[in-house]
Amino acid sequence: xxxxxxxxxxxxxxxxxxxxxxxxxxxxxxxxxxxxxxxxxxxxxxxxxxxxxxxxxxxxxxxxxxxxxxxxxxxxxxxxxxxxxxxxxxxxxxxxxxxxxxxxxxxxxxxxxxxxxxxxxxxxxxxxxxxxxxxxxxxxxxxxxxxxxxxxxxxxxxxxxxxxxxxxxxxxxxxxxxxxxxxxxxxxxxxxxxxxxxxxxxxxxxxxxxxxxxxxxxxxxxxxxxxxxxxxxxxxxxxxxxxxxxxxxxxxxxxxxxxxxxxxxxxxxxxxxxxxxxxxxxxxxxxxxxxxxxxxxxxxxxxxxxxxxxxxxxxxxxxxxxxxxxxxxxxxxxxxxxxxxxxxxxxxxxxxxxxxxxxxxxxxxxxxxxxxxxxxxxxxxxxxxxxxxxxxxxxxxxxxxxxxxxxxxxxxxxxxxxxxxxxxxxxxxxxxxxxxxxxxxxxxxxxxxxxxxxxxxxxxxxxxxxxxxxxxxxxxxxxxxxxxxxxxxxxxxxxxxxxxxxxxxxxxxxxxxxxxxxxxxxxxxxxxxxxxxxxxxxxxxxxxxxxxxxxxxxxxxxxxxxxxxxxxxxxxxxxxxxxxxxxxxxxxxxxxxxxxxxxxxxxxxxxxxxxxxxxxxxxxxxxxxxxxxxxxxxxxxxxxxxxxxxxxxxxxxxxxxxxxxxxxxxxxxxxxxxxxxxxxxxxxxxxxxxxxxxxxxxxxxxxxxxxxxxx
Length: 711
Fold this sequence. Notes:
Elements: H1 2-9, E1 15-16, H2 19-23, H3 29-38, H4 53-62, H5 64-67, E2 72-73, H6 74-84, H7 89-107, E3 114-119, E4 122-127, H8 137-143, E5 156-159, E6 163-166, E7 171-176, H9 182-197, H10 216-220, E8 222-229, E9 244-251, E10 254-261, H11 264-275, E11 278-281, E12 286-290, E13 293-297, E14 303-309, H12 317-329, E15 334-338, H13 353-359, H14 369-381, E16 385-389, E17 412-413, E18 431-432, H15 438-453, E19 459-463, H16 469-473, H17 476-484, H18 491-512, E20 519-523, H19 533-536, E21 542-546, H20 553-560, E22 564-567, H21 570-573, H22 596-601, H23 604-612, E23 620-627, H24 637-641, H25 644-653, H26 664-676, H27 687-691
Parallel strand pairs: 7-8, 8-10, 14-15, 14-23, 15-16, 19-20, 20-21, 21-22, 22-23
Antiparallel strand pairs: 1-2, 3-4, 5-13, 6-12, 9-10, 9-13, 11-12, 17-18
């Protein structure tokens, strides 16, 4: 065996920890077996017989008090075993083969022969001779480089290189805040403590097995989290200051982490940063925190989002909660909920139960009002706003079919119409019926309930993309209505009516929101094009979300006309790209797959600068990665979102001047962190690469590469 041979040859002063110190309880026969196998004892030291097993166990138990909390040299351990063992090959066979294989592997953790040192921001793996001062991998990652393994990278940070050990039971909160903020902070602190538990490698079902014989200093070391917040803000808006300071100081048996923030949301971000300055100590069975640190941090962009489409496929509340948890771990602040589409209407409305009755896939695949309110609060505690989207006037269909049987006429047209390619951009088809005034009555009721369950609404997504004018122009009810109102049937006439619809939709939302105007978001579309956007859309009312390529000249037009924009350019930030086409042979329309490197390097400011010569920092609000769910459900959701969504998060939080390469080591560690938190994040590299920083990056060969060497 490689490990025992290594220990047999190790220098005299190499230190090993006896298993009882790791697992607790009396020193067991498994301990003797570990010593027996791991130190390659000569034949004359073998136990005299099976009958001595009980005697040896008893004698080891009497030595428990001496073994606990001690570090023994190999020579000391050998001497101990020699005192307890005689010379009998039968006992040796029993201990070495049967008892050793079955028991030692179950109860004993072998120490790693490897250690790590930090060099130029990389953790270098070396054989641990006990002399060079090497540390564990977790400790090295925690303290190596200017930012350790913090993600997203803070604006400025100074981290100490030493750590102190503690237990999660010794962490407590000292709030220095207003009463309005206190309930939110207490919830956030509970989440923080829960995330500390998840550092343990055997965390399961809400708890971790913190049981060992820790050193006295680790067992009593306390961590005080002191939070100073002056503001009373409890709801996130585009004007919220999300900055914070975090200072860690250790004095004796106490570490104090002081958080200073203008409001709850900055303080919450600081708690996430603090979580990432803690790791599990592999050899001690404790947590460890950097001894000292100072972090000054604030986001580069106001809007840092993810979109989830729950219409094409349904996602459970638990799956959405997990997504919100992971967004919080990355300091993303906006969950764009694309709730409905032509495929389904999975939202139950108390005033319009027929929408879900006709529109849900099954009765169990519906979001009820109390679940939506729960998710809004769940997100808020995690520093996230939920932006609802009711896509219109296109992308409506299933769920709208009940109008005629209830005396309201056709609320939507072209619903499920074939051949679909003539009436929409993907099946099934459907668009609102502009000729039916009852459609607006229904829209008002939908907006009213959305405004209630998502209250308070500071942003609302109206959708507004992929309108197919041919659908309207081939519907007799609409063409007759157009003609009766002295409208022509050309493209411009339909754009005029689309513009009228959008203005009515905005006014309906304002009315049901108690006359409070809400900033609207619209997808880039024909309505936002060069010749039309100023005619139909006010730049004070609307933000335009760009989903076309980052080189689209329309972006420059919008910025020159002072429209605020959010980037979701599909050539970098569409997460479903790179799959097989779901309607035909070949790849899907937005292929190829974009890896985390592309997502990380997609800078909104650079896009604006390349097109206009200016970053337009005042107009570029941020960005959003979109997960459209044609080929995704919650079984594959995590791997599609993460860890690529984390690359988006650092771009939008930090907006680093560098490309992905300096972030690689932190990124790979952050993926590991997300997995510990229960996220099924996609793997980036083999484990060997994680343990050997920078060794897996593609390089130029020093010698010519011989091709076709094998037959």
